[in-house]
Amino acid sequence: MSYDPQSHHRRSIRLKGYDYSLAGVYFVTMVSHQCATLFGDVVAGEVQLNAIGRIIESAWLALEDRFYTIALDEFVIMPDHMHAIIFIVGATPVGVNSVGATLVVAPTDTPAVKLGDVIGGFKSIATHDIIVAVRRGDLPPFAGKIWQRNYYEHIIRNEKELAHIRQYTRGNPLRWPDDAQL
Question: Are 163 and 68 spatial neighbours (Cβ–Cβ below 8 Å)?
Protein backbone atom coordinates (compact mmCIF):
# COMPACT_ATOMS: atom_id res chain seq x y z
CA MET A 1 0.00 0.00 0.00
CA SER A 2 1.47 3.37 -0.98
CA TYR A 3 1.33 6.54 1.10
CA ASP A 4 -1.76 8.67 0.48
CA PRO A 5 -1.63 12.02 2.32
CA GLN A 6 -5.43 12.27 2.22
CA SER A 7 -6.00 9.05 4.15
CA HIS A 8 -2.70 8.60 6.03
CA HIS A 9 -2.42 11.91 7.83
CA ARG A 10 -2.64 12.28 11.57
CA ARG A 11 -5.06 14.83 12.89
CA SER A 12 -3.39 17.40 15.09
CA ILE A 13 -4.79 17.77 18.59
CA ARG A 14 -3.29 21.26 18.96
CA LEU A 15 -5.38 24.43 18.93
CA LYS A 16 -5.34 25.50 15.30
CA GLY A 17 -3.51 28.77 14.75
CA TYR A 18 -2.27 29.09 18.35
CA ASP A 19 1.40 29.97 18.93
CA TYR A 20 2.65 27.55 21.60
CA SER A 21 5.76 29.67 22.16
CA LEU A 22 3.64 32.44 23.70
CA ALA A 23 4.14 33.16 27.36
CA GLY A 24 1.41 31.30 29.19
CA VAL A 25 0.51 28.41 31.43
CA TYR A 26 -0.05 24.94 30.03
CA PHE A 27 -1.37 21.70 31.52
CA VAL A 28 0.07 18.61 29.84
CA THR A 29 -0.53 14.88 30.12
CA MET A 30 1.93 12.34 28.75
CA VAL A 31 1.01 8.65 28.66
CA SER A 32 3.19 5.55 28.64
CA HIS A 33 3.20 3.43 25.50
CA GLN A 34 0.03 1.33 25.42
CA CYS A 35 -0.79 2.65 28.92
CA ALA A 36 1.67 0.19 30.46
CA THR A 37 2.26 0.70 34.18
CA LEU A 38 5.98 1.41 33.82
CA PHE A 39 6.63 4.21 36.30
CA GLY A 40 5.68 2.78 39.69
CA ASP A 41 2.56 2.09 41.72
CA VAL A 42 0.08 3.84 43.95
CA VAL A 43 -0.02 2.59 47.53
CA ALA A 44 -2.53 4.02 50.01
CA GLY A 45 -3.14 7.05 47.80
CA GLU A 46 0.57 7.87 47.37
CA VAL A 47 2.74 7.34 44.32
CA GLN A 48 5.70 5.00 44.84
CA LEU A 49 8.01 5.58 41.87
CA ASN A 50 10.14 2.71 40.67
CA ALA A 51 13.57 3.17 39.03
CA ILE A 52 12.02 4.25 35.69
CA GLY A 53 9.72 6.68 37.48
CA ARG A 54 12.67 8.19 39.35
CA ILE A 55 14.58 8.66 36.08
CA ILE A 56 11.53 10.37 34.60
CA GLU A 57 11.23 12.62 37.65
CA SER A 58 14.90 13.57 37.43
CA ALA A 59 14.62 14.37 33.71
CA TRP A 60 11.52 16.49 34.40
CA LEU A 61 13.15 18.48 37.19
CA ALA A 62 16.20 19.18 35.00
CA LEU A 63 14.11 20.84 32.28
CA GLU A 64 14.45 24.34 33.74
CA ASP A 65 18.24 24.02 33.35
CA ARG A 66 17.83 23.17 29.66
CA PHE A 67 15.03 25.55 28.76
CA TYR A 68 15.55 28.92 30.39
CA THR A 69 12.17 30.25 29.28
CA ILE A 70 10.07 27.80 31.30
CA ALA A 71 9.11 27.36 34.93
CA LEU A 72 7.79 24.05 36.24
CA ASP A 73 4.80 23.94 38.57
CA GLU A 74 2.76 21.05 39.99
CA PHE A 75 3.35 17.63 38.47
CA VAL A 76 2.61 14.03 39.31
CA ILE A 77 4.03 10.87 37.81
CA MET A 78 1.48 8.10 37.91
CA PRO A 79 2.09 4.41 37.06
CA ASP A 80 1.10 4.91 33.40
CA HIS A 81 0.98 8.68 32.81
CA MET A 82 2.21 12.04 33.97
CA HIS A 83 0.39 15.34 34.53
CA ALA A 84 2.28 18.62 34.72
CA ILE A 85 1.82 22.38 34.64
CA ILE A 86 4.40 24.38 32.71
CA PHE A 87 4.81 28.14 32.57
CA ILE A 88 6.41 29.52 29.42
CA VAL A 89 7.74 32.80 30.75
CA GLY A 90 9.16 34.55 27.69
CA ALA A 91 12.54 35.45 26.32
CA THR A 92 15.88 34.07 27.43
CA PRO A 93 17.42 36.14 30.22
CA VAL A 94 20.23 38.46 29.15
CA GLY A 95 23.64 36.83 29.51
CA VAL A 96 22.35 33.24 29.40
CA ASN A 97 24.20 31.21 26.83
CA SER A 98 24.12 27.60 25.81
CA VAL A 99 27.64 26.24 25.53
CA GLY A 100 28.27 22.89 23.91
CA ALA A 101 25.81 20.32 22.64
CA THR A 102 23.45 18.23 24.71
CA LEU A 103 21.32 15.25 23.77
CA VAL A 104 18.55 17.70 22.99
CA VAL A 105 19.89 21.12 22.21
CA ALA A 106 17.66 23.59 24.02
CA PRO A 107 17.15 26.75 22.01
CA THR A 108 18.26 29.54 24.33
CA ASP A 109 18.90 32.28 21.81
CA THR A 110 15.33 32.49 20.52
CA PRO A 111 12.55 34.71 21.89
CA ALA A 112 10.75 31.72 23.42
CA VAL A 113 10.65 27.97 23.26
CA LYS A 114 7.58 26.10 22.03
CA LEU A 115 5.69 23.77 24.33
CA GLY A 116 6.26 20.91 21.89
CA ASP A 117 10.03 21.47 22.07
CA VAL A 118 9.92 21.11 25.85
CA ILE A 119 7.78 17.97 25.81
CA GLY A 120 9.71 16.39 22.95
CA GLY A 121 13.00 17.18 24.66
CA PHE A 122 11.77 15.76 27.95
CA LYS A 123 10.54 12.50 26.41
CA SER A 124 13.78 12.10 24.47
CA ILE A 125 16.01 12.79 27.48
CA ALA A 126 14.01 10.52 29.81
CA THR A 127 14.01 7.68 27.25
CA HIS A 128 17.76 8.09 26.66
CA ASP A 129 18.46 8.00 30.40
CA ILE A 130 16.32 4.86 30.81
CA ILE A 131 18.14 3.13 27.93
CA VAL A 132 21.50 4.05 29.48
CA ALA A 133 20.33 2.53 32.80
CA VAL A 134 19.31 -0.68 30.98
CA ARG A 135 22.69 -0.89 29.22
CA ARG A 136 24.49 -0.37 32.56
CA GLY A 137 22.47 -3.23 34.01
CA ASP A 138 20.61 -0.99 36.49
CA LEU A 139 17.25 -1.80 34.88
CA PRO A 140 15.95 -4.94 33.17
CA PRO A 141 15.48 -4.70 29.40
CA PHE A 142 12.03 -3.68 28.22
CA ALA A 143 10.16 -4.34 25.01
CA GLY A 144 8.77 -1.56 22.92
CA LYS A 145 8.65 2.13 23.73
CA ILE A 146 8.35 4.21 26.88
CA TRP A 147 5.99 6.94 25.65
CA GLN A 148 2.79 7.03 23.68
CA ARG A 149 3.07 9.31 20.66
CA ASN A 150 2.09 12.93 21.27
CA TYR A 151 0.66 14.45 24.45
CA TYR A 152 -2.49 16.16 25.67
CA GLU A 153 -2.28 19.88 26.39
CA HIS A 154 -4.63 22.49 27.74
CA ILE A 155 -4.02 26.24 27.83
CA ILE A 156 -4.76 27.49 31.34
CA ARG A 157 -6.60 30.78 30.98
CA ASN A 158 -6.96 32.22 34.50
CA GLU A 159 -6.04 31.85 38.18
CA LYS A 160 -9.22 29.95 39.08
CA GLU A 161 -8.54 27.36 36.41
CA LEU A 162 -4.89 27.12 37.49
CA ALA A 163 -5.94 26.47 41.10
CA HIS A 164 -8.42 23.79 39.95
CA ILE A 165 -5.81 22.01 37.80
CA ARG A 166 -3.22 22.15 40.59
CA GLN A 167 -5.75 20.48 42.90
CA TYR A 168 -6.60 17.90 40.22
CA THR A 169 -2.91 17.11 39.75
CA ARG A 170 -2.23 16.76 43.50
CA GLY A 171 -5.31 14.55 43.94
CA ASN A 172 -4.57 12.22 41.04
CA PRO A 173 -3.03 9.44 43.19
CA LEU A 174 -6.16 9.32 45.35
CA ARG A 175 -8.24 8.63 42.24
CA TRP A 176 -5.88 5.90 40.95
CA PRO A 177 -8.09 2.92 41.88
CA ASP A 178 -10.85 4.48 39.77
CA ASP A 179 -8.44 5.35 36.92
CA ALA A 180 -6.94 1.84 36.91
CA GLN A 181 -10.40 0.33 36.32
CA LEU A 182 -10.89 2.20 33.03
Answer: no
